[in-house]
Specification:
The protein is of the alpha/beta class and 397 residues long. The chain is built from 16 helices and 14 strands.
Length: 397
Amino acid sequence: MELNFKDSKQLVLQGNEACAKGAIYAGCRFFAGYPITPSTEIIELLSSELQVAGGAFIQMEDEIASACAIIGARWGGKKAMTATSGPGYTLMQEAIGYAAVTETPVVIVNVQRGGPSTGQPTLSSQQDIYQARYGSHGDYEIIVLAPSSVQEMYDFTVRAFELSEQFRTPVILLADEVVGHMREKITVEGGSKNIPGGRKKQVVSPQADFYQGENSLVEGQLHDEFGGRIGHIAKDSGEFICNINNKITDNIDLITDIETYFLEDADIAIVAYGSVARPAQKAIKLARGIKDERIISKFKFLRTVFRKGVPAAINRDYSHLKVGLIKINTVWPFPEQELKRLAKDVDLVIVPEMNIGKYCREVERVLKDKKVISMPKCGGDIHTPSELLDQILKELA
């Protein structure tokens, strides 16, 4: 599928295609990757469209080489990205740590599938939520965005490049198979966005790319501001580790992105991220009595043609439930203070995830005075709105 990157404003795209389009708009001009389900469409599209945009694409021998290649490309002066899933993302962890310690702004897309190992190549999960934060060894902070729609696949890809340049750090776009393969109409921008390197407040100074006349030492040991090795000096090494962590944690308010729905009068909150936020939004509409006639018509049609009944969630009355949604778009760094503020008036918090219940542990840690219920789901199926609401009824019984 060929896309016109100059004039398009509204397109019907798959999530992975939207990611590729967002990368081009954000100024990405180098991509290195290795095909792996369910992220392959990103690689397929960029293999041709990067050439149209004046960039370069290279299929590497594996994901280790891919992650290393984009680091080199960024120091060569080009905004760079790779995309992968599951086993490939595991192979990239050492390079992600290298990008963190060398303060290299790159974007890594992980379209999650079920694991461990080869796992479920064609089904979705959110099982990499901890690996995205703690995958590489050592102490470092990282920025991770979790899109829940095709539009957000586009927007968050652009945002990932902005954040990576602002904070000189690798940024992870933590998508999943559901979002990567769904199709929706989205709004895109023509041309290319100018994303300058370095932060406006100069918390992180712009990097000196190769070929600019500066002497640069770029390697994995801890270093001072001139690139000199300091790994043998405890005091200087400690200060460096604090700096690469603090540049993110001290600016968490600039990084955090949270959306809320019907939270103003809610005494129950669903905390969700990624694709699971979609059935959570539908559950809240059901609880609030907001009818989606398209959904109802669809089920009436199915009942007529296939003699199937209308699902219980359509007929059941949940209107007595005051449910709101806290949708976390920037999952790492964890938005502790903002979550506390948003959840201060709720009594019950439900955390649905397509894993064994990982992110919920962070929510429990922060909301110690609330009843926090983990709602894990493994196997590749996403939560349904009725499952979410029935879980709430069960907890209130």
